[in-house]
Amino acid sequence: MDQQKSRLEKLREKQDKLRNRIRQEQSKINKLERKERTRQLIQVGGLLEIAGLLEIDKGVLLGSLMDLAATLNNNKNEYKKTEWKQVGDRILAEREAERKARRKAELEANSTENEEIEADELLDDIEEAAATTEIGYERRY
């Protein structure tokens, strides 16, 4: 009888551990889902900003989005969807190209600055070494 109780207790402990593990895994899944939703909401907010709609009255915005949703759900408007997609993709591509160009210019500017700093540091090291030896060295500008 005691052996059966002990076995039952061990099974209940295993069951509790498994329930905890399930809770932990579900918590991880929920966290990932929240992160994904947050990412999507941020993207949509960015699109609204690009379109210049952040300052519009919220009721007007929602009403126009509801009208847009009805238009998008109507299969008769495939040509309009295609047109909107082309315009949107073009704008996004232009913005991405501008972002890359800005980033490249920043990297090049930083690279030039870093090279100048490294050259100055190298000259300082040479001057210091020359001062401690018999070699005469003078920086010329």
Give an overview in words:
The protein is mostly helical and 141 residues long. It contains 3 helices and no strands. 85% of the residues lie in helices and 0% in strands.
Q: Count the beta strands.
A: 0
Number of contiguous helices: 3
Low-confidence stretches: none
Give the % helix. Answer: over 70%
Give the end-to-end Cα distance, rounded to a whole number of Å: 97 Å
Structural class assignment: mainly alpha
Indicate the radius of gyration in whole angstroms: 32 Å
Overall morphology: flat
- Strand residue percentage: under 5%
| Largest pleated sheet | none
Mean of residue pLDDT? 86
Order of helices and strands: HHH
Quick structural overview:
With 141 residues, this protein is mostly helical. The chain is built from three helices and no strands.
Short key terms for the protein model shown above:
mainly alpha, about 140 residues, flat
How are the SSEs placed, and which strands pair?
Layout lengths: L1 H49 L7 H16 L4 H55 L9
